[in-house]
UniProtKB/TrEMBL annotation, chain A:
It holds the Pfam family TctA. The keyword Transmembrane applies. This is Putative tricarboxylic transport membrane protein. The chain crosses the membrane at residues 20-47, 59-78, 107-133, 145-162, 168-186, 198-219, 255-276, 325-346, 352-375, 387-405, 411-441, 462-484. The keyword Transmembrane helix applies. Keywords: Membrane, Transmembrane, Transmembrane helix. Residues 18-436 form the DUF112 domain. It comes from the Bacteria.
Automatic annotation (TrEMBL), chain B:
It comes from the Bacteria. InterPro entries: BUG, Bug_dom1. The keyword GTP-binding does not apply. This is Tripartite-type tricarboxylate transporter, receptor component TctC. Residues 1-24 form the signal peptide. Keywords: Receptor, Signal. Belongs to the UPF0065 (bug) family. It comes from Pseudomonas indica.
From TrEMBL, chain C:
It comes from the Bacteria. Coiled coil: none annotated. Residues 14-156 form the DUF1468 domain. This is Tripartite tricarboxylate transporter TctB family protein. The chain crosses the membrane at residues 12-30, 42-61, 91-123, 129-155. Pfam families: TctB. Keywords: Membrane, Transmembrane, Transmembrane helix. It comes from Pseudomonas indica.
Length: 504, 333, 156
């Protein structure tokens, strides 16, 4: 017990580890804020960079970057409507409208506090229930991943403002873009038009930077002459009353974040969108309408994507399996440092587990400090003349895209997606569903085929499994319920009931 | 600004010097090393561990660049397109050797110069701990009793599991349902959750899980027991005929374009040979579950040729590919 | 979708183009593996393409009954569309952006970025060259420090 406690507090008491965690968190915020610079990339560079370090020092820096980076994406989402990472796409839905109303400072303040709450809930779950939920992740069969992806895609219903048909079209378009490249089973090209460059597929961050960054830059060209909104910079730190008001919602969305984060292959991006959907369904009287600057629309995704970090660590620390791309690189780092990440890690090297837990909590504290620092300066960023801001955004989009895969072809694609996004925006299509489709389409395709292969290509057998396995049954019912909720069927049913009651 | 200008000037200058034939001072600038697999994967791990030692031996800086996608076609093609000046190196795995027969690309490693074949992994056939079969012979019997019902995890055409499957089918019969995963990781997760029945894995990926009893090893793809997995029988016990393909395993190597100047090649060969032989790196390989090879020159080329010929011909025999290997210039083993 | 009764200029053309695009996607999806099996590489893409076609058709059907925009014929509509969404400023900026991408491969990343930033800021602000030079220099320095030094990103 005392040993556990000493591991837990290791990062808090050693000045060097303290400093490295702080440094990591600080750097992470800015890495996360720049689209194209991803946490995965930062961590994999750190792995070679910290090669000769003590393993604890390296892990402290990595944890800081991870926590800071996931949060940092919200900065650019709120200020510029360009999510720094896919997990911040949902943050832009209500964050950017807030910035346009002069509340950028308040939005950043709230998102910081909420990220910290989410991060701490994630850490707490990791510390208290890691082995249990690690085993839960193993129960997900391919068919269950298929159902999770289906639930994710059904979010289109709540993401698509206005026309559902346009939302569905956008999601399908995204899915097709996500499917471009080599088929993972047969190695056959799909939608590659015979181009070698397209065999590797189109990275969805390329799509995201184009649709949000470039399209927004072109859109803003119309508003070149309107003076930027003056930003209110008082009351940046949310009051306790406000935090308490959102606490029930934030705990619920944090739990969504942890659970989704635990599943390998599904991460903070989906968690944030699911949490946004949850907020939209359950909050009856938001501060402002959703999509127009609802604080709830900011709380949900920010808590969920931060909580997903704790979740992603669960399979890594309990089983040696990566929960997402970042933990995959961290596993690599552990291997390079001579540790054996696997089911015995917690038994043979318990210090790694408790050290990580303590370190995650510490990084969240630093996040609170650094996140609330310099907000005024950032809010002023929005007040920069558009004539300067727009070219800067374009250059950042180019550098960001290039640094993903060092591919100039992808930069051209990014610009093309920018034009496409601009046109779609003009005609009232939403960008969110496209990203959703691009992330979930490939997951749905592979899990569908895995599920089909598992039952020997027998659809009847697959259907039987969907309703007989307990986990699948729960997920199937969720899909059916959401489908009914999206179509007007359920509403009609409710109306009839009410009418009958009134008459009776 | 000054810095930017200076960098611009430096880049311009280095472009100029490229045109000159003198390579006496190689490396004069940082070397771009392309890893055609994603960050955190086995190839990435090996290369990121090895590179610091190579940097020390060579006295230059490497910029490691992950260019994943398309079974490493994207990254390898990129290196093929760069100038043959030794400033772009491919740090890859075995996959390009199968490109001609899988119709993925028109080139293979014979279009590159092998600087070093670093090491090789051992293959393990793994199953969940409570699977009804414990040896390769029992697995084969179970598959024969109920053909096309057992679920085998694979990683797609050209991946390790399907290659091993082809080898087994070339000498015996193993009819199964193939469930394809995005890589070792998701496959192992499904294996532990018992959503698939068995999967051929690299020792590096399976070692810890077998050691901790989460998975059990049915056989290792060797002719003798391996020290890392004592008590696990070699596959030749159940399938003696497979020995003609052994030793076999996925490998890692460093490559440059064939027309790179000889003095540059020689410098790289020396640096890599010393770096791979480094005790600390050898310790890493051992812990990783891989066997060191450290092959250079003619030895490396012979290794590549044999690997390609053994693998493709066994795949052809098992009808896993429809192109005859000799039609794309691969001789019979 | 804004529930105005009037169609946007070019909306009908755009929606029909989307429908046509969906049909092309269906054709490409069919080409992958035909209707060979429910577990073929082309099965899921075919399904997605069908969803695309249905939703695009629905978008087109929704347009029926909406009032036509005020324009005289096809040519006038084109011109109105261009004026509304692609004014001269947008076109020139887009041209600058494309030229910038092309220049990256010719004259290195840093040189082309500097030119692009100075040119576009000067153009969009209508003058003030000194300010543009300063901003461009600052951003380049930042990119150099962040990407080249800290992240060792290989910039062309």
């Amino acid at each position: 017990m005392t040993e556990t406690l000493s591991y837990l507090l290791m990062a808090w008491s050693d000045p060097q580890l303290l400093l490295l965690t702080a440094l990591g968190t600080f750097a992470g915020i800015y890495i996360g804020a720049i689209p194209g610079l991803s946490v995965t990339m930062a961590v994999s560079i750190l792995v070679s960079f910290t090669f000769s370090w003590e393993v604890n020092d390296a892990l402290a820096l990595i944890v800081g970057i991870f926590i800071g980076g996931v949060y940092g994406g919200s900065r650019s989402a709120i200020l510029l409507n360009i999510p720094g990472a896919p997990s911040s796409v949902a943050t832009a839905f209500d964050g950017y409208p807030l910035a346009q109303q002069g509340e950028a400072g308040r939005a950043i303040g709230l998102s910081t506090v909420m990220s910290v709450i989410g991060g701490l809930v994630g850490t707490l779950v990791l510390a208290s229930a890691a082995p249990v939920i690690g085993d839960l992740a193993l129960r997900f069969a391919p068919r269950d991943y298929f159902l999770v992806a289906a639930i994710g895609l059904l979010l289109v219903g709540s993401l698509a403002e206005g026309s559902l048909a346009k939302g569905i079209f956008a999601a399908a378009l995204g899915a097709i873009i996500g499917l471009v490249g080599m088929d993972p089973v047969t190695a056959q090209g799909r939608f590659t038009l015979g181009q070698v460059e397209l065999m590797g597929g189109i990275h969805y961050v390329v799509l995201m930077i184009g649709l949000f960054g470039v399209a927004e830059a072109f859109y803003q060209l119309h508003n070149l002459d309107t003076p930027p909104v003056r930003q209110k910079v008082d009351k940046i730190i949310p009051s306790l009353a406000m935090v308490l008001k959102f606490l029930p919602l934030s705990v619920r969305t944090s739990l969504i974040g942890v659970v989704v984060g635990v599943l390998p292959g599904v991460g903070g991006d989906i968690a944030a969108l699911m949490a946004y959907d949850h907020a939209k369904r359950t909050v009856k009287n938001p501060t402002k309408p959703f999509g127009k600057g609802a604080y709830e629309g900011l709380v949900a995704p920010e808590t969920a994507n931060s909580a997903a970090v704790g979740g992603a660590y669960v399979p890594m620390l309990t089983l040696g399996m990566p929960g997402d791309a970042v933990t995959a690189v961290i596993i690599g780092a552990l291997v390079i440092h001579g540790l054996n990440p696997g089911p015995m890690l917690m038994v043979e090297n318990p210090h790694i587990f408790w050290f990580t837990v303590g370190n995650l909590a510490l990084a969240n504290i630093f996040l609170l400090v650094f996140g609330l620092m310099g907000i005024k300066l950032f809010a002023k960023f929005v007040e920069m003349p558009k004539a300067v801001l727009i070219p800067l955004i374009l250059v950042l989009c180019v550098v960001g895209t290039y640094s993903i895969n060092s591919s100039m072809t992808e930069v051209y694609w990014m610009l093309g997606f920018g034009l496409l996004g601009y046109l779609l925006k003009i005609f009232g299509f939403q960008m969110g569903p496209i990203i959703l489709g691009a992330i979930l389409g490939p997951l749905m395709d592979t899990s569908y085929r895995q599920a089909m292969s598992s039952v020997g290509d027998n659809p009847v057998e697959l259907l039987r499994e969907l309703v007989t396995s307990p986990l699948s049954l729960i997920l199937t019912s969720a899909v059916v319920l959401i489908l009914l909720g999206n179509t007007s069927l359920l509403k009609k049913l409710k109306c009839k009931c009410k009418a009958a009651m009134a008459r009776g | 600004m000054l810095k930017a200008l200076l960098t611009g000037a430096a880049l311009g200058l280095s472009a100029l010097t490229l045109a000159l034939p003198a390579h006496a001072d190689y490396p004069e600038r940082s070397i771009q090393a392309v890893i055609p697999w994603g960050a955190g994967g086995a190839t990435d791990n090996v290369m990121r561990s090895l590179t610091p030692y190579v940097e020390k031996e060579l006295g230059g800086k490497f910029i490691l660049n992950n260019r994943p996608g398309g079974t490493a076609v994207i990254g390898s093609t990129y290196v093929m397109q760069q100038r043959p000046d030794g400033y772009t190196i491919l740090l890859g795995a075995e996959n390009p050797q199968l490109y001609p027969v899988l119709k993925l690309a028109t080139f293979d490693y014979s279009d590159f110069y092998p600087i070093n074949i670093i090491g090789q992994n051992v293959v393990v056939i793994a199953a969940p701990a409570d699977a009804p079969f414990s040896t390769m012979a029992e697995l084969l019997a179970a598959a024969k009793a109920n053909p096309d019902t057992l679920r085998m995890g694979t990683t797609g055409a050209g991946g390790l599991p399907s290659t091993v499957h082809a080898m087994i089918n070339a000498v015996d019969e193993l009819k199964v349902r193939e469930v394809t995963f995005g890589g070792d990781g998701p496959g192992i997760t499904a294996l532990m959750g018992k959503h698939i029945d068995f999967m051929p894995l690299s020792l590096a990926a399976a070692k810890e899980l077998v050691r901790t009893g989460k998975l059990k090893a049915l056989a290792v793809l060797t002719t003798e027991e391996v020290p890392e997995l004592p008590g696990v029988e070699p596959i030749t016990k159940a399938l003696p005929a497979i020995s003609e393909y052994l030793p076999w395993g996925p490998f890692w190597g460093a490559f440059v374009r064939k027309d790179t100047p000889d003095d540059v090649k020689q410098k790289l060969v020396d640096a890599y040979a010393k770096a791979v032989a480094n005790d600390e790196f050898q310790g890493f390989l051992k812990n990783f579950g891989a066997h060191s090879l450290n092959l250079t020159g003619a030895e490396a080329e012979a290794f590549l040729k044999r690997w390609q010929s053994v693998t493709t011909w066994s795949m052809y025999k098992a009808k896993a590919i429809d192109i005859a290997p000799d039609s794309v210039g691969i001789a019979k083993p | 979708m804004n529930k105005t009764d009037k169609m946007l200029v070019g909306e009908r053309t755009f929606c029909v183009l989307l429908l046509a695009f969906s049909l092309v996607i269906l054709y490409l999806a069919y080409q992958i593996a035909g209707f060979s099996s429910i577990n073929s590489p082309g099965a899921f893409p075919l399904g997605v393409a069908l969803v695309m076609i249905i939703s695009a058709a629905k978008i087109c059907v929704d347009l029926i009954g909406k009032a036509r925009p005020d324009c005289n014929g096809w040519l006038d509509a084109m011109q109105q569309f261009r004026r509304q969404h692609f004014p001269k400023r947008t076109l020139i900026f887009a041209a600058l952006a494309v030229a910038y991408l092309a220049a990256i491969q010719w004259i290195s990343f840093y040189a082309s970025t500097f030119c692009f930033l100075v040119l576009s800021i000067v153009y969009l602000r209508g003058g003030r060259i000194a300010g543009a030079l300063l901003v461009a220099a600052l951003l380049l320095l930042l990119i150099y420090l962040l990407f080249t030094l800290a992240f060792s990103v290989y910039l062309p």
